[in-house]
Design a protein that fits this description.
The chain has helices at residues 19-22, 61-65, 82-88, 110-113, 127-134, 209-212, 224-241, and strands at residues 6-18, 30-41, 46-49, 73-75, 96-100, 122-126, 156-159, 166-167, 174-178, 187-192, 198-203, 243-247. The chain is of the alpha/beta class. The longest helix has 18 residues, at 224-241.
């Protein structure tokens, strides 16, 4: 069965944004960061991690995302959405058992946005993130696109704070660790592949390796103190698991990884 476990990384487009939104203390010059999502195939059902952008973003990002596009320009083709991505790797929508959310920001809610096309999927998130995302407060609401996830027909499975280290399949392949700060209920994932290699999907708890190593600080964190603690935890997990860290939006590191239809196993 080990040959059925594969990790696919997808290029979900790019965002052009002011450096200050990416790095605390940055300037107004524009930088480009990648949007990524992942799919894990598993004999007990396949898993989508986040799913990138909703497909509507490829058509009219301003209409779908709203005022955040006044500061951030997203570039995405229809083929970079989740469903065409699944087709490219020969994974059917019906085979998706889990949609696992690191958090619910608008560039991470692409799978739950098309949950009606994933008929056998439950959506897993932390209760903390789910409850915050129902009515995010103040400026931080700009990062959420509620139309993607506040709708009927979403079968939510919510992790409590006591579920830290949750083992999705009970076989050690997918384990989930709370890494709040960027958002209240953010989580990151350790994946153990049959080859023995482990990958740490940090997502936005560490946008880049520079963020991970705290050479720079992230420009968009709800709770900076918690974010710093989460970075320390990520570094420990990477050391303990001897895992390759896959950051959330690293323009230098993301191009070095294999992209679907290529995979890791």
């Amino acid at each position: 069965m080990s040959d059925q476990i594969r990790l696919y990384l997808f290029d979900g487009g790019t965002v052009h944004l002011p450096e200050r939104n990416h790095i605390l203390g940055g300037g107004e010059q524009r930088i480009t960061t990648p949007i990524m999502y992942a799919v894990l195939t598993h004999p007990r059902g396949n898993v989508v991690f986040d799913g990138g952008n909703a497909p509507e973003v490829a058509v009219d990002p301003r209409r779908h995302w709203g005022r955040i596009t006044e500061m951030s320009d997203v570039v995405m083709t229809p083929e970079q959405a989740l469903l065409p991505g699944l087709e490219r790797i020969g994974v059917t929508p019906e085979s998706i058992r889990w949609v696992v959310q690191s958090h619910l920001h608008n560039d991470h809610s692409g799978a739950v946005a098309v949950i009606d096309r994933l008929p056998n999927a439950q959506v897993l998130a932390t209760r903390t993130e789910y409850e915050w995302a129902q009515a995010p407060e103040g400026f931080f609401a700009i990062g959420y696109c509620p139309v993607d996830y506040i709708k009927p027909g979403v079968d939510w499975f919510l992790l409590e704070e006591t579920d830290d280290g949750f083992d999705l399949f009970g076989d050690g392949v997918v384990r989930m660790y709370r890494t709040p700060g960027h958002s209240p209920g953010h989580q990151s994932f350790v994946l153990a592949l049959p080859s023995g290699q482990r990958y740490l999907l940090a997502f936005d708890a560490a946008n880049t390796i520079d963020h991970l190593e705290e050479r720079v600080l992230a420009g968009f964190n709800l709770a900076p103190v918690e974010a710093g603690r989460s970075l320390k935890r990520l570094r420990f997990l990477a050391w303990r698991e001897q895992a390759v860290v896959i950051p959330g939006h690293d323009p230098d590191v993301f191009p070095t990884f294999r992209k679907a239809p290529d995979f890791y196993s």
